[in-house]
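Take just one protein record:
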Amino acid sequence: MCTSLIYLDDSNKAYFGRTLELTSDLPYQLVYFPAKLGFSSELEGHPALTYESRYGVLAVTMPGRMPSADAPLGFKDLKVLEGMNDQGLTFSLLSYPTAGGGGHEVVAATQAVLSASDLGTWALGQFATVTEVKSALDDQPVLLEALTLLGGVESPFHYVVHDASGASFVIEFNNGEMKTYDNPVGVMTNGPEFSWHLTNMDNYSFLSNVDKSSGTFGGYHARQPDSGIATAGLPASNTSVGRFVRAAYYAQFAERAKTPDLAVMTLAHVMNNFDRPRGITIDYPSGDGGHLEVAGLSQGSDETYATEYTCWTNLSDLDRKRFYLRTYRSLNYASFDLDALVDAGGVCVLPVSHLDGLYGDATTTLKDAKAA
């Protein structure tokens, strides 16, 4: 359903890519949050946790609630799915169905807690490195909340943070209990738990990008007619398990580009391996398919089958602070320069659907979408 990875260029500068797959488009909003914004994270039974952003943030978001005539949506209602701040820290939300449903950490009612839904603005708005996020989480309780838009399901996600050094960190809830991991491979997909994926990599120690194109069997000398046999051992399916192994392979062996522009191009080629057209796999409502990985997100009754597809793909240049985004209806990326957004003059909100067919530098387009 989602695949993310870190790629390093010839100078060890870090670039990040991720895809997001669902069975339908949702009202995604591309938002620029300038520094010095005030936020509040609220969970029933606890005081509100308030924090102010130190850094500018560019993010793909979703509304955290349904709007009403009396309470229209504001920027504080937009929850980060994918984002980067002006220090090169990234935050990504990926589906993880077994996150909720268990016991929760016991936190005193007098203590302010952070909702997992607000992890994005909390991390990106305040911290510059993975180390800073890890340190802050040591003292900050985080709890799942029931999401109205998903029919009351507790946040069925896990989260990954990267910084400009290439460091990677995972925040995961297993049946309500928060666990954190350093991520030495810099890759994330969906379930099972992250530690299981690392153990599973032990089954692929034979992988190499070196073709072995000939071999002898008895008196027969076998020879490949072309190149590419090195990838024969990669999992072929689009399951979370298969994509994790393939992402680790591509991140490890893709040639390290010598310039930032070539690095972004290389990362785009890598992420193309995880791009899913509609219809490649389908699940019928009466079947046993696991197509709806985001618990609570249902297909309309008029659909005869469900098919996951890549709703959008993001690339992030963590050194130059550039954010690239393409939708399902685009083959090229629109790009956004965080340094150039500093003078935007406030929060900017642009529906991601407005990027359909758009490519090249779209920073001005986002600036023109300054919220009222």
